[in-house]
## 1
Amino acid sequence: MPPRFEVIGIEGIGEVRPGDDIAGLIVDAARAQGTPLESRDVLVIGQKIISKAEIVRMDRGIIVSETHHGWVCANAGVDQSNVDPDTVALLPEDSDRSARQVRERVRALAGADVAVIIADTFGRPWREGLTNIAIGVAGLAPIKSYLGDVDPSGRPLTATILAHADELAGAAELTMGKLDRIPASIVRGFAWAASEEGAKPLRREPGRDIFR
């Protein structure tokens, strides 16, 4: 069978409030719509509901900065959309930790060994439009390296490293949208490698970052 996977948006999660059990809301909503979480699923969650549940907020931001997580982004991850009036949401304080906690909670509630990606939209140099990327990862290897492999012509690959976690986050965004109130999606059928590295391998070292 040719390689294939599907992406399933999770409806019915509802408005998230500070202190809510994100994993519980997702497990219940996925079950209610007839697509309960299964082992080997990848659960992609928009960072906004993580930040809401963790009460991560502030009153103002700046234009461009590097966050303490190592991400360089517009407004330092400050976002006023889809939050209460006079409130903004920041990135989770430790997105890898948040992803691990959701993963462990899903295993406890649903008996499913899933990978978890916390995703956020980023702008890209020289490209119009936003795309989802992974800012927190638990359970899967965020990158796949082909360095040292040989192509069909016998030439060794010297620069091919795929950002699998970012690609999965981008695929999930197509079912989530910005106005559809679907803050999480299931990626089912994708063959991922297990890892506890988190999202760190996705961040380029400062000495190799030409945009700094």
Note: The first strand starts at residue 6 and ends at 9.
## 2
Amino acid sequence: MSCVSASAGSSDTSGSESPGAPIARRRRSSLITDSVVLTGSGCTTPNRGFRRENLSSGAAVSFSSDQAPSWRPPPSWRRVLTVESHAAGEPLRVFTGGIDPIPGATILEKRRFARERLDGLRRGLMFEPRGHADMYGAIPTEPVTPDGDAGVLFMHNEGWSTMCGHGVIALVTVALEVGLLSERAVVRLDTPAGRVTARPRREGARVMSVAFENVPSFVVSLDDRVTVPGVGEVRYDLAFGGAFYAFVDAANAGLEMTPERFRDLIAVGSAIKRAVIAAREIRHPVEPDLSFLYGTIFTGPALGSGADSRNVCVFAEGEVDRSPTGTGVSARVAIERARGRLSPGGSFVVESIIGTRFTGRIARETRWEGYDAVVPEVEGSAWITGRSEILIAPDDPLAEGFILR
């Protein structure tokens, strides 16, 4: 049974699935508790004591926090429930109701179904006016392995990703704090990239941090070169940490990794990604669905005290990760090991463009599909920032949204 199964109906902007309604009470399972987390009761934002005069009629209109508005959307509208969160500044919108169970015997089959049948809904939930150009989302699913606790599909402005480190940290935090998962010491997630094992650190009801062991991560090549139009020759490393990235020293590309250079980082990072894709084949040794370049990660010295390095990831359609990028840190662990700068048991702290941090470690070394690989562990913290009911009217011309930068 899917974490996001809902009971009632509205119109489907993707044209492929029955619509959903607020999350319903569920029987207890290994995936979720039987408690209702969200009710879809509408806006309850307090506005204590505020009154205004209706100038046309002279009647007083009172806004009170004592009760929620009685308005309900028409049955034909799609209603999607979310818990909003962030990990190290990067958002994660966790969908908890209003999306029907996604079919598929494996998580990759579920991802293929989502790509083919739910992409219009993804755009509506990620793009403006309901999201923004840098929004990130997660659909929890039932596990697809005998010992799994849950599955997950990640989405962003370009499509459906294969793995997301900040998303794992935020999803585990949300699932445990709001009761989507019953309390446990280890959370085993089925992701499109493979099994990810997360260990939350709790203090009472709060999840203080999450450390996860990622899929085997490896270096494809070091010190390759590519000619980038408008930039020139760029040296890069190609590595996998749940997704493939081209790693580029920011100084060698003439860039500073600061918020003030945000647009330059997007432009150059996107150009490097296009050039690498044009210059070489990106091939995952096992899964063709993972055989693509996800983004460019600029690296360089840390700007804050207590960190060892800085990552700025430009991925998908020009998104910039506010976090240090969990899968990017995983691939960095593999690169640092290959260059002899990180030993088993050692760790390094990576900061983001806004100064937030993840810690990367080598959990163990392994030989995987012809590669000298590492199983990295990445640790960070997440916070719940809100909950919402997203509405999509069937006649809304912007049901599938738009993007402006």
Note: The domain at 217-381 is CATH 3.10.310.10 (Diaminopimelate Epimerase; Chain A, domain 1).
## 3
Amino acid sequence: LRAGLVPPVLTNNLGVSVGGTLSVAGLGIASFREGCQGDNVLEMEVVTGAGEVVTCSPDRERDLFDAVRSGLGLCGVITRATIRLVPAKPMVRTFYLLYDDLSSLMKDSQRLMTEERFGYLESWCVPCPQGFRKVAGVPTPFAQWFYPLHASLEFDPASPPDDRALTAGLSHYRSVHVEDRTMAEFALRLEPLFELWKRGGYWAAAHPWMEVVMPWESTASYITAILANLPPHLLGGGHILLWPSKGSTSKVPLFMKPKSEFVMGFGILPGLPPQAMAVAGPMLAKASDLAMKMGGKRYPSGWLEFDEARWRAQFGEMWEPLRAAKARFDPDGVLHPGLVPL
């Protein structure tokens, strides 16, 4: 930042390792235009399962380069990475927009991605608890759901953005707030939330995070089905994340996503006491299976309980290339034994 440069894509939590995020893809709120972190890595040092230390890049040891980006650490451990940097302006302005209708949020998100008015887009599903209703004769908590959209762009203080032009034609329910931050403050914008989680005990809770990437065409029906049966208290100290993106920005072979012009990431990210897993686990598994039945793919950064059939469905046409890479770079199966039955 001192040199006015940043990686094109930053994850929300900057306390994780770059090697770890590259191993799953590395998504951020600029991914709709910049792809994932794996699309922006120039070179990596990798320790393979065979114990070899190899430097790989798009032009050098390309097979290994493609096997470790979004490769879940199955073929090698990334120990060093060179990431592309891009110029950053000193300030970021964020528009806090609230939607009471999912279809309106999706329509505006698609428009903003196409027009590229903003450099960063992030959204959530937020419950407004309504009390209890009977489900099969049993009083069950339920909620009305709202959808915040935070749209941000970088700017120079000498040339501030035109707020009216940036939000013209959008169909949000309410404009809640406009916030200016330095680029550093923006990159660390979720740190106050993480501190609240730590003080409230949620940081040390169980985090069975279930994230999927859905084709745009089935996103609304999928999310509606999930939220209709999701008790708001199940989130505990967590939240539900939405991540709109173009489907073609990432070219990483093992980052599995639907073949769709636009895609929507959807993550149920609870923070729960361990005893709540008996209830949460089966619900999250059903949400995962439904996503894949409706054409989605898992984003494998969190909780996974997959058998071989699910893994094959996840990797699809990349299943056999992944098996070949595993046999080549980790012939004795020392990396992540039992995770993926290759």
Note: The chain has a mean pLDDT of 95.
